[in-house]
From TrEMBL:
CDD domains assigned to the protein according to its UniProt record, in alphabetical order: ABC_NrtD_SsuB_transporters (cd03293)
Organism annotation: Gordonia malaquae NBRC 108250
InterPro entries: AAA+_ATPase, ABC_transporter-like_ATP-bd, ABC_transporter-like_CS, ABC_transporter_ATP-bind, P-loop_NTPase
PROSITE patterns: ABC_TRANSPORTER_1, ABC_TRANSPORTER_2
Keywords carried by this UniProt record: ATP-binding, Nucleotide-binding, Transport
Residues spanning the signal sequence: none
Listed GO MF terms: ATP binding; ATP hydrolysis activity
SUPFAM superfamilies with a match to the protein in the record: P-loop containing nucleoside triphosphate hydrolases
Domain of life: Bacteria
Protein name, as recorded: Putative ABC transporter ATP-binding protein
Amino acid sequence: MLADSTPDVGRVEIRNLERRFGTGADRITALGPIDLDIAPGEFLVLVGASGSGKSTLLRQVAGFDSPTKGTVAIDGGAPHAGRTAGVVFQQPRLFPWRTVRGNVELALGYAGVARSQRHAKADELLARVGLEGTAKRRVWEISGGQQQRVAIARALAVETPVLLMDEPFAALDALTRERLQDDIRLVSATTGRTTIFVTHSAEEAAFLGTRIVVLSKRPGQVVADIASPLARDAKPEHVRDSLEFSALRQEISTAVKSAAQ
Ligand SMILES: Nc1ncnc2c1ncn2[C@@H]1O[C@H](COP(=O)(O)OP(=O)(O)OP(=O)(O)O)[C@@H](O)[C@H]1O
């Protein structure tokens, strides 16, 4: 299944971006200079050694933090936290005393959806991430994998042009992680939302990305930019079994190892 329509929003332009932290002798350059053009609908996976600045770059695009030098533009404008990008973190960060549906309804409220439409819209989003039948349960009653699905539904609720995911599956067991990868691949192909996804896993990067960008060790700079040859609408099991997938995973893994030296 391909995107519902060709997306025309969600262009991310990163120009000459640098981020330094600290002052005086303790000053470090964490990131940059970085130039990246991300087209609407691309699923860009960022990989690189620990400390290469992946989360720092994501935070600039989210609008949570500002570059020391250079610019980030989303559809030509400055990033605005919560308005231009939805964010999913490693921990789901839900409201535990609310129901599953209540968490999604809250995000819909922030997004300006009328109260009368929130219930149905929340259920539609929960179905999209495979959570039919859990709407009335409290967050603490469901598993970690299900909680992360709620966090994804919540991020999808706010119809931002960009979706940012910072190691969202890292804390999950292997089977749950694989299921969520299958689902997010399909969700992203159908919504066509520009996505930037951070991971440490070459396998996850190869499976999810339409494009994989490898950062060097500090200061993080782009050392490899790989276009995936895998078909977006291929069945997950066919992707995982394919020779192209193995070759891509190997290429990413080699690039990450050499970038870390
Ligand atoms: N607020 C901050 N103050 C000082 N240094 C920071 C700050 N945020 C990040 N850094 C430093 O910037 C560098 C990049 O950090 P960042 O968390 O972006 O890397 P990362 O690639 O996401 O790492 P990991 O894979 O371990 O999550 C690190 O050296 C980190 O210590």
